[in-house]
Amino acid sequence: MSGRVIVAGAGCGDYDLITxxxxxxxxxxxxxxxxxxxxxxxxxFCKDGAEKICVGKRAGRHSxxxxxxxxxxxxxxxEGGVVLRLKGGDPFVFGRGGEEVLALQAAGIPYEVVSGVxxxxxxxxxxxxxxxxxxxxxxxxxxTGHTAADGAETLTEQIDTLAKLEGTLVFLMGLHHLxxxxxxxxxxxxxxxxxxxxxxEGTTPKQRVVRAKLCNLxxxxxxxxxxxxxxxxxxxxxxxxxxxxxxxxxxxxKIGVTGTKSITKKLxxxxxxxxxxxxELDYATLVPDWENEALEQALQGITAYTWAVxxxxxxxxxxxxxxxxxxxxxxxxxxxxFAVIGTGTAAALEKRGIYPAFLPETYDVESLAKGLCGxxxxxxxxxxxxxxxxxxxxxxILAKEKKQYTDVKLYDIAIDAEKRRFAKEMDFITFAxxxxxxxxxxxxxxxxxxxxxxxxGTSTAKTLASYGDFPAxxxxxxxxxxxxxxxxxxASKTKATEKETDK
Length: 503
Prior knowledge:
Blueprint (H helix, E strand, L loop, with lengths): L3 E6 L10 H9 L2 E4 L16 E4 L11 H13 L3 E6 L9 H11 L3 E4 L4 H8 L13 E5 L10 H10 L3 E5 L5 H10 L7 E6 L7 E6 L3 H8 L5 E5 L19 E4 L3 H13 L3 E4 L3 E5 L4 H8 L6 E4 L2 H13 L11 E4 L2 H8 L14 H11 L5 E7 L5 H8 L3 E12 L12 E4 L2 H9 L9 E4 L2 H8 L6 E3 L5 H23 L1
Parallel strand pairs: 1-4, 1-5, 2-3, 2-4, 6-7, 11-12, 11-18, 14-15, 14-16, 16-17, 18-19, 19-20
Antiparallel strand pairs: 7-10, 8-9, 8-10, 13-17
Helix pairs in contact: 2-3, 5-6, 10-11, 12-13, 14-15
């Protein structure tokens, strides 16, 4: 029995412009076949095990032909389950969704269509340009900006008609043919002083807008060096300024984030709420060592330990998962006192109903180690539970003070090479751990000139310093909030300096 296909629009730009029905389709699908222009964060909503297939083209990378996509949809549906064809914008607005539906009809595959928010209206709106406005534009027309690339009717054959249309003209995918479009409209009789605009990367924090008279639009767009995707708006409404007046403190600030899925997601969401343009530079995956012999021995002899030490929230979570996998009653930990490196790790422990007996005043490995030496007696045993890449400073100090300890490597951190992004023109790059720093550089990461690193704590800052003399800031509070506070403070200083310079 064949499956079914959902042809859905992802909306344009930011991930949260997808419809609720599209969102529910993402959560339930077994296979998602998607275009490159969609926001990659949408894929995080897929259920575990869902197959993800990219068929789009961007920045010169190979893309599947439409015929190949049609065949793929039929083949995947024939395997059973739910196949989601996720397209940018709306699937029926220059999205070739109709061709895909015809292929499904021919193959007898059940399908449904879920509309998406089209860039034709959403992008101009984000720039404060209404598609229609009383007394200015009673209609709008959406036109492809592509010229006869595939043998279809060319734009220039229609240009006379387009030039005489009343209302607002909206061109999609036309940035590379901007001059052709403008010249054709002018030759067709469109007044040279007609208001016009180009909106690049609309609805995202990277959005940029150029407004000009039609005759000057191409020159002004070149001067601004706008990038695709872009929407071109021509008509009286293009000179309107109806964009939101809420001022975001990090608007226009470019930030790269590194780390595990949980911390990059938290950072990205918080920073984008403040207006920043955020790029996930790498995607670190926790790899628990469930068959760890050292852990097994430690758990079998857990009553011999008086202290358990955690250096990250991840360590807390994986340790308690290990207890569950082995069906070890949490009451066997009753004799243990817990030490943690910082408030984030303490919070992870407190979720389990356990409150740490020791938390250093300064949230770094050195302070943790020295503090432990002051509270742990010579006859007591310490169980350290942390990442394989944990700092040697902790055990070096404990050994020097002749403290008894067992250092258990709970998990490793791997960088997903397929999700690597290289930093370009970043104002800040965040690092949430020393292992994250090492993974970043091990995978070929570099610090662009003019970029400031923001480290979650002093240990992370020390690890970064071992790779070079980079401009760096360290959070005063060693958690996500601390990282954001540092960025906000530094960004406000930069903006204040720019204002002084402009005077």
